[in-house]
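Working notes for the structural subgroup meeting. M.R. asked for a predicted model of this chain before we commit to crystallization trials. I am recording the input and output together here so anyone reviewing the notebook later can reproduce the run.

Input as submitted:
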Amino acid sequence: MTLIGAHTSAAGGSQNALYEGRDIGATAIQLFTSNQKQWTGRKISSEELGLWEKALDETGITHVMSHDSYLINLGSPVAESLEKSRKAFREELERCHLLKIPYLNFHPGAATGGSEEECLETIAESLLEMEDLVHKGKTLLVLEMTAGQGTSVGYKFEHMGTVLQKVGNKIPLGVCIDTCHIFAAGYDIRTQEGWEKTLQDFDRAIGLEYLAAFHLNDSLKDLGSRVDRHAMLGEGKIGIDCFQVLMTHPKTRHLPKYLETPEGPEGWKKEIALLKQFAEGHAYAHENKKHTPS
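Returned structure, recorded in token form:
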């Protein structure tokens, strides 16, 4: 099965994200289990849990990914912020365990007033503090590559490799590549050749066995801009060839992929159909490409 979907809406209950996924032709979805802009996480009721399990059965969607709150910074040098971040992250993981969500995707953190090295050390310490809770369920913690905007870490493969090395084998971890983010961070993924080099770099710094998922987004900003602005597939600076490679490459085609492009469900429906065509070996007409690599 081609594992492709989008970040769907859980408004009115987590189960609705699954139904929206089914409506757009998704075989995988990402969602927020709680308001991503609030520190206080919500509780999942037994009624909602029942509706969630019913929706899982009715939709057949299995590769669900949760995205944690945008407020969480597991690498914060500020004690109060770090304490709140760790508490919110534990609550998110508890919701994932309750809903039996396979993946919890999170941005590593931001150095703010500290150094990147200190930030990476603190992220590893934060994750190790979760060890007891992690092993109470089967949710895989997935570090998301960033664009390097502001003081965010995680825009270099070496950053993720450092965290993985510090955490060791105590906690199962994976890495999610966001195509917009790594392009903005300076990894040229516009062509087959570009992807080959990028995957080699990933393997060298992290290990391909840790590559768990993709966020699929084109980029409004240029290569190496360090600015995170998503665009519809083929309508940004990356171009459509990148996504055709991902859907067919033997090292990436089997991994779950989640759209975060800006047009919402109607746009996702078209993009999912196109990506499924790529996976089936259908080419994309050259005249339809809005941006091709120079």
